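User: Can you fold this complex?
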Amino acid sequence: MDKQNEGYVIVDGVKTPIDGKKNLLEVIRASGVDLPTFCYHSELSVYGACRMCIAEIEGRGIQPTCSTPPVDGMVVHTNTETTMRIRRMALELMLANHHGNCQTCDKNTHCRLQELAERLGVKKIRFEDKADDVLPIDNANQSIVRDPNKCILCGDCVRMCKEVQGIGVLDFAGRGSNARVTPAFGKPLNKVECVFCGQCASICPTGALTVKTQIDEVWNAIHDKDKTVIVQIAPAVRAALAMEYGLGHGEQAMAKAITALRRIGFDKVYDTSFTADLTTVEEATEFLGRVAKGEKLPQFTSCCPAWVKFAEQFYSDYLPNLSTCKSPQQMFGTLVKKHLSEELSVPRENIFVVSVMPCTAKKFEAKRPEFSVNGDPDVNVVLSSQELIKMIGQAGLQLRELPPGSMDLPFGFKTGAGVIFGASGGVAEAVLRLAAGGEGNNGQNLQFQEVRGLEGIKEASVMLGDKELKLAVVSGLANARTILEKIKSGEAYYDIVEVMACRGGCIGGGGQPLPNDMPAREIRKEMLYDCDAVQSLHNAADNPYVKECYEKLLEKPNSHIAHELLHTAYCARRRIDGEPVELTPVQAEEKIPVSVCIGTNCYLRGSYDTLKQLIELSKKAGIADKLDFKATFCFEKCMQSPNVQVGDKIHGGITPDKVEEFFNLTIKPLVESEATKVEA
Amino acid sequence: MTPVTNIKSPQELAELKQKALAAIENGCTRVLVCGGTGCMANGAPAVFEAIQKEMEKQGVKIKVDLLDESKEDAVRLGYSGCPGFCQVGPIVRILPSDTFYIKVSPEDAAEIVEKTVKNGELVTRLLYTEEATGEIFAKRNDIPFYRNQVNIVLAECGIIEPEDIRDYIAKDGYRAAAEALFGLTSDAVITEITESGLRGRGGGGFPTGVKWGFTRKAQNAKKYIVCNADEGDPGAFMDESVMEGNPHALLEGMIIAGYAIGADEGYIYVRAEYPLAIKRLKTAIAQAEAANLLGNNILGGPFSFNIHIKEGAGAFVCGEETALIASIEGQRGMPRPKPPFPANSGLWGKPTVVNNVETFANVPKIILNGAQWFRGFGVEKSPGTKVFAITGAVKNTGLIEVPMGTTLGDVVFKIGGGLRTGRDFKAVQIGGPSGGCLTKEHLDLPLDYDSLKAVGAMVGSGGLVVTDEDTCMVEFARFFMQFTQKESCGKCVLCREGTKRMLEILTKIVEGRAKLEDIDLLEEVATAVRDGSLCGLGKTAPNPVLSTLRHFRDEYLAHVVDGKCPAGECQSFKTYIINPEKCKGCGLCAKKCPAGAISGELRQPHTIDPEKCIKCGVCYDVCRLGAVEL
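Assistant: Here's the predicted assembly.
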């Protein structure tokens, strides 16, 4: 019998069953004592650094309870003189080193440090003033602000990024009191492999990682008389609003929010669920096309911009497998600017599209250059759910008291299929409803329970006519990595894979209000399925305004015009910005630059050997002094790796076995022709 | 040198031993130049070269290869490991007479060769002379520094040539491994080590046999042996000396440990600052592999064991076993909470034994001589010997090995020779920056794990820093805090922030800026850091503060309340004045003062502006008339 999972622990005299809990902290919490922590989260590995959850265990002394397995018969005291003294000291030490003025901090009233200082009664900091060396704040990207001066080094973001998202953008550097959490080489987040999912900001207990605020840009647009300001609200936002304002139902919260948005001054209020329906139709058609041709399967979903960037950086081989559909946010931007500028005769640049998203990566997505026309973005500003709540507060609106409002048409009309996009499995289910039910199964609520829920990897197989469809639904990018590696190795086969970067899908997006932990996501998920239940339609193909859209503008799914407006393309993307490494000393004489990429993709296909061989060959041929060799880090052409740039032309596929041929046919003649030019 | 290759059985090993031993003990003269890092840095290579040249010049046949039969009667010249007495290096030792020459320079070579090597005469001026009595000692073992030591771990250091495996084999090297692998079950090995009472020499003092037993019981096809050679205490070089002077002993200990727990792979985690140790270990591994004493099917038997060297970057915290494991794995060297212990989940999640160099070096001796023999040294709960690195204000600094339980007084006065400075003994810091201080009242304290723990200190890895009454204990604590603060990994709050704040308060005290409540705050932080930190480094980091507060609280109070440093060490409390009666107005002090604080007319008494004075003491040093007074 495994004693660690059964029996009882005596917590402050109270007999508490272990009940399968994996650590003592969970047992203590079950007994009714909320031992504080900064660094313990049930979904992350145990770190044991904050020293807040310590307790006195009889016979074992003072131990952190997060890393102690409970044992039957253990006697634990949580609030002894020593444990309270240590906890307070740890907190006082953290505060002594914490730069930041609570009143102006973005995490004010949501800050764990602030909360615990109050709770534990730490009222005075007895140490010398904070270090006056203020570290630079990283706010160069669209999504996340990183203020290392507020960091308490709990490592939550580090583990979140590494363990849940499988990336590892952030890690520790430096020792002792110089220890810092930082991206590689101290670069800003927009110069490294960050996908801007914002999960780090969700888990950060202080103001060290926060969602970038763009509220003022929206106010400016609203105050600008020339602008027609449009807002779209993503499906998952309604669940966040319902929780934040203590309203039981997502649709109720949404209806009140519509009134609030109108009163704030938005000219039109629309629902992103509408373009989610449109996405379903486009994506399902695309998928059926691929199945018919039997090519580029599995098809991966492309609604999640963090996943798209992840794929572009780490799995460029699979970019042809990504659905070419734009995300609902971007489809909306394109359509609404085109439609309204024509309908209202307003110049495109005077239509200002705001989206309210549960997401921080959407801020990045909106800035992708392909999503703008002559420099005018399809979506002007993306607000997170957090920012919308702040904006409602800034306007002084008492959301709970507001009467319900309704969305503007046509882009405010949705089916339940569009709403469930906000939960992991929702996109897959929407596609399945369409594929399985076809058009016109009105009111018939097809449910696919096997793809629902917060588990990171869900698999299902569904009969589509006489063909069995294999699906995977993945949330959390580390899980995406796992699935992709399985697909790569041939261990698994799927026809369609839905990927959402955040665990549980958009309901747990990095822009959602705090707490944004798994229990909160569970509640939001249920709310979305409740929203689906109260809709009259559940199949995207039945959305009358989607149909109208095709009739008036798009002709039919995947038509030429639909492709032009609603589809996009992807490109391999470098993970880190860096200067090329000079390998041959530069001399005054004109040399032909030869750069070999040693980024991961090229490296894995032998580019390092390619480089070595090229240098060897040039020495043998006696032209080494005519060439300037450099090792570079990414030409963003990973699909044709290894890449070699000679002069200004990039040559792909120069694997080690092709180097000699390439050298003789490309580099040598070039050197010779240059030589004759010089002579002439 | 012809390599030793492919020894096929324990029998062949025994034969080789006899051959090598006969070649060594053939009565011919042997010249050993100390090849430890200290002597090497002090000019040993030049001494070696000079002796070699002199021997050639004077027609002395030199034997390089131990088993070179054509040179039966030749003199063998080589480098030995460190004999410990670093204070008097470079050391040259001549056998079989056991003549011990100290502070040898290349100019002495001709005389050494002429007199001692060729004619067996002594060069008296190169012998060790006891300062107090004037007594001259010709033989190593008569010198008081050595006379009071018992060498088990260091027994072969300074006698064998570490880069020749045959020297080690001649001294029964690898016989213990052969006996264990071919004559004992794994359990029997663990029982022997458990019964010997050997405890981890890295500082914790955990019973080695028990640790091995846990790891043996852990269910896993793959297990690891890790040697912690990340010796990080400032001034400590016990492990370095073993690796440089007798690397095969470490390898043999690891092989036996591997056999005992069922591991086939071992790592030695050694800091890159030990290039000589790394070089000698690499040589030793290559030789042992060639000799079939390491690798697949050792000595033709079924057991296989491979050893890798992992060079660390020298972080102090990587001496903590979980941080060390993380570092081998290529992760940032940060400790993690235990459980799980490495015995269950260590290197790459596999059951792992982590022991330090000295612990492993004891193992072959225990297997050869038995647990009871080992228990004959030391005290009941801490059997065996301990190597200490003694430094500071004592006469004899260097490396010493004494039975556990030897009193502090014996170490400082009998072996260390008392204080070099002529001042009174004040305290000794034992166990490095994580240890604690012992004072006059502890001179009769036996140095063993439990006695030290009882007084709030620890054996640690074995550093001993002796101070005299001119040392300010607040500054002393500050010195160690500076070290731990820099070396904290920065993971847990209490150690990262606590060491920073303790250092800050200590600095305030020595600079005369502290208030009385700062002492209380210092003690409060120190206690919290001790009680609540994650790893051993954090838990012990406040020891210098807590033990000086316990024994020298009045010194702290003197700084804060009276504005004085009783030891006269802290600059901030010094006031320099010029005695107008003595000053002749030469102006030298004014010229040298870096702060421009001294003024005065030529040939008139000068004065120091206390506002400008930075208390550097230059004026005090340069005044020929003693007119600058404190």
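The radius of gyration of chain B is 27 Å. The mean pLDDT of chain B is 93.
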